[in-house]
Amino acid sequence: MSTETHRIVLLDGGMGQELRRRSERPATPLWSAQVMLDEPQLVVAAHRDFIDAGARVIITNNYSATPQRLARDGDPALFAPLQAAALEAARQAREQSGRAVRIAGCLPPLVASYHHELVPDDATCLRDYRRLVEVQAEEVDLLICETMTLTRGALAATRAAVERQVPVWVAFSVDDADGTRLRSGEPLAEAARAVVAAGATAVLVNCSVPEAVTTAMAQLAGLGVPFGGYANGFTSAADLAPGGTVEGLEARRDLNPERYAEHACDWVAQGATLVGGCCEVGPAHIAALAARLVALGYRLDDAAE
Questions:
Q1: Tell me: the pLDDT tens digits for 86-100?
Q2: Within a 10 A sphere around the Cβ of 240, how many other Cβ atoms?
Q3: Beta strands of the chain (E only): which ranges?
Q4: With a threshold of 0.90, does the pTM exceed it?
């Protein structure tokens, strides 16, 4: 594909780990949601840094503010305040930047990342994704179902967004050793076709090692919708226990900004048009990726155009 017509949408990086680096407070099971309560100014600043690095889609910082996680790790009464705070932080960052940036609301795993066996029954998934969509729909440009490990959970999130007529992207997390399969073992290609049939307007792979994302791109290339990826920088994300903290995860030492950009450019070479970063991928990585793409002759998307 000619780089002259290959227009790339650059997403932000991993907010949770970026906020952990910026905060002096200890990690909690609520992950980045705790920062919304204690140090909301850090969230605005992190969004701004990703925008300044080149991101034109930023994802709201409400990943861990689900009904199930708040009941287990915090207070269910925090649901509405945390959602509102995350939306406000993203709005502030966009306004301060003066740039045309799309805000993506987040539809995360309801119970825990990487654990497909903990996905609730279909009725519960649809009920709680509807709650998440309802509080975000009027304030965002699109919704991203993130780190989906099981097809039926992804379908429930997709349907909840489609019901409100909000554009929805679905990002699956794949087996780090086999990028053709979800962490549940289901074939990625089949899961991707299912969510597209349900109304997803783009499909991505996220929160998996870059090598697995590279393998996954071939599974998404024939869907007829934009596709892409945003990888993490953990040695093994699957080691995180439900309700645990990220203190127990180890970051790879070989994924500096330049090396990460090389991986992401491999995805683009396979036809991906949506690229960014997940956990352990910071503004410097996004800046390096933007610079590499421009140097290769790709055109970076600007939401103002």
A1: 999 999 999 999 999
A2: 18
A3: 7-10, 57-59, 102-107, 142-148, 168-172, 174-175, 178-182, 202-206, 227-231, 274-277, 299-300
A4: yes
